[in-house]
């Protein structure tokens, strides 16, 4: 049965296809009836007649309708759709969980349990919104991950199969044949890609231009955590701890190709797909700058800032607990002071690397370590120690989840129920850890200063009222105002 088509205007999608508009890359896919192939809007192949194309919200829906992935435009490499990042409903959360590999590790039952709904209800909602159920979405995710690894690495097909989340080689072969119309070995290059040396894997993560890499790296460099992060003018490097592995990642934006080079060292590749998702989130690679600029550019205060910094991103977080700890430490202190406190915490309670790699010496401490250890002697106030312990205990006992797939409203409420966590801290955590593009800390001192410069009322209520017109991109508005203050203030 043919699956549900994309709900967007057909003429708009077809015009985007004809012009190969990169703004729509990853937001929909095109099935070509005459070839049986589905493509990205930027595919270089000759544009099919309108009567012969079908539009789908996701690659899985196109595959379920009988189309196979294009070998020219590589649908598996496209940026993710931002539409699901804006939304915080059941379907959006389910899609984020599936992208993180929850179905692979916990099955559909585990996915439904995480979302507190029945499997039947979850499947019904996904079918209504995207045209396919959770199993089909997970299967497409595995196939696309495998296709990316085959194309961009020299790993063996067996290693790729299990790194992508397949349960067996047979399942891997059958899924790849169904999704792409050929065996996995057909994708293997004669000359394997460069590994990057030192046991590293190298992948290319695509984004929609423009991309203000300098501003993003500058923001992260100002807050770099000693021993855990290392940031130069052109790249970001850090230690990472994942459910089944540890390692080091390096991200280097390449503006000429609209990609970010990801170099990975992991002691177990089973977390590779999750790590790629975390890296995309950290650099906000699924954003659509044109859509954000269209809304924010209507405001007289923001318009010159957007023109000055097109493609400004909202940094995400590699580790939700780590970001929350740093947010609590950053309350009512300068950025440099918060960074110093976080560095002391990491040095004392973080796990040391077996061999330091440059300035990288530690993995960030676990919630259990923060909850159990004595936090005295680090320069922390008593209230901050209480707040950190409460946060660590809530994460450790599972009553608080700081991931992109968490319920945003409930998580913010749970955060604010912790001692020492107010609206500013909760909003900042929602902005970077939960990936909420509309999170907005209206009481922030920097935002008040920005409004004051424009002779506008600076009370949180008046700022909140003015920012209503910025929805659903208030987090980006905040970062534009912060970036402007940072560049114009000593």
| Largest pleated sheet | 5 strands, antiparallel
Annotated CATH architecture of the largest domain: Orthogonal Bundle
Summed up, the helix count is: 22
CATH superfamily of the largest domain: Hypothetical protein, domain 2
Low-confidence residue ranges: 1-7
User: Based on helices, strands and strand pairing, what is the structural class?
Assistant: alpha+beta
Strand order of the largest sheet: 5-9-8-7-6
The structural domain count equals 4
Helix content: 40-55%
Radius of gyration: 23 Å
The CATH topology of the largest domain is what?
Endonuclease III, domain 1
Q: What is the count of β-strands?
A: 11
**Head-to-tail CA distance between termini:** 63 Å
3D shape? globular
Strand content: 5-15%
User: Class of the largest domain, according to the CATH hierarchy?
Assistant: Mainly Alpha
Quote the average pLDDT. 92
Keywords: Activator, DNA damage, DNA repair, Methyltransferase, Transcription, Transcription regulation, Transferase
Organism: Dictyobacter halimunensis
Domain HTH araC/xylS-type: 92-190
Enzyme class: hydrolase
Task: Give the structure's gist in a few sentences.
This protein is of the alpha+beta class and about 500 residues long. The protein has helices spanning about 10-20, 60-65, 85, 90-100, 100-115, 120-130, 135-150, 155-165, 170-180, 215-220, 270-280, 290-295, 305-310, 320-330, 335-350, 365-370, 380-395, 410-415, 425-430, 445-455, 460-465, 475-490, and strands at about 30, 35-40, 55, 70, 200-205, 230, 235-240, 245-255, 260-265, 350-355, 360-365.
């Amino acid at each position: 049965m043919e699956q549900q088509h994309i709900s967007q205007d057909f003429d708009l999608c077809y015009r985007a296809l004809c012009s190969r508009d990169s703004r729509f890359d990853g937001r929909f896919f095109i099935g070509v009836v005459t070839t049986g192939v589905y493509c990205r809007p930027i595919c270089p192949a000759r544009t099919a007649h309108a009567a012969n194309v079908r539009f789908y919200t996701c690659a899985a829906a196109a595959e379920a309708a009988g189309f196979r992935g294009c070998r020219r435009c590589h649908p598996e490499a496209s940026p993710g759709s931002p539409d699901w990042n804006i939304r915080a409903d059941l379907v959006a959360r389910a899609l984020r969980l599936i992208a993180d590999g929850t179905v692979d590790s916990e099955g559909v039952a585990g996915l439904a349990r995480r979302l507190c709904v029945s499997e039947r209800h979850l499947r019904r909602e996904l079918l209504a919104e995207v045209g396919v159920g959770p199993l089909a979405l997970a299967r497409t995710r595995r196939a696309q991950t495998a296709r990316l690894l085959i194309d961009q690495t020299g790993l063996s097909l067996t290693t790729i199969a299990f790194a992508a989340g397949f349960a067996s080689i047979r399942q891997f072969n059958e899924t790849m044949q169904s999704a792409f119309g050929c065996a996995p070995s057909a994708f293997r290059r004669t000359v394997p890609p460069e590994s990057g040396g030192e046991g590293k894997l190298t992948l290319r993560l695509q984004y929609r231009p423009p991309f203000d890499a300098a501003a993003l790296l500058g923001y992260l460099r100002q807050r770099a955590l000693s021993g855990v992060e290392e940031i130069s003018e052109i790249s970001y490097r850090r230690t990472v701890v994942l459910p089944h592995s540890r390692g080091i990642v390096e991200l280097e934006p390449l503006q000429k190709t609209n990609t970010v080079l990801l170099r990975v060292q992991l002691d177990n590749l089973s977390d590779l797909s999750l790590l790629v998702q975390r890296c995309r989130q950290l650099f906000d690679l699924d954003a659509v700058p044109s859509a954000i600029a269209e809304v924010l550019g209507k405001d007289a205060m923001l318009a010159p800032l957007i023109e000055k910094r097109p493609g400004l991103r909202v940094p995400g977080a590699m580790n939700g607990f780590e970001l929350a700890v740093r947010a609590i430490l950053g309350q009512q202190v300068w950025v440099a002071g918060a960074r110093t406190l976080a560095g002391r915490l990491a040095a004392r309670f973080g796990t040391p690397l077996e061999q330091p790699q440059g300035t990288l010496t530690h993995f960030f401490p676990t919630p259990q370590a923060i909850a159990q250890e004595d936090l005295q002697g680090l320069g922390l106030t008593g209230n901050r120690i209480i707040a950190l312990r409460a946060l660590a205990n809530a994460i450790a006992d599972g009553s608080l989840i700081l991931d992109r797939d968490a319920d945003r409203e409930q998580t913010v409420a749970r955060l604010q129920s912790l001692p020492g966590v107010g609206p500013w801290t909760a909003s900042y955590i929602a902005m970077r850890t939960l990936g909420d593009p509309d999170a907005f800390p209206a009481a922030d001192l920097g935002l008040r200063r920005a409004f004051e410069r424009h002779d506008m009322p600076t009370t949180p209520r008046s700022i909140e009222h003015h920012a209503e017109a910025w929805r659903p991109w208030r987090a980006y508005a905040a970062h534009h105002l912060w970036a402007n203050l940072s560049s114009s203030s000593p």
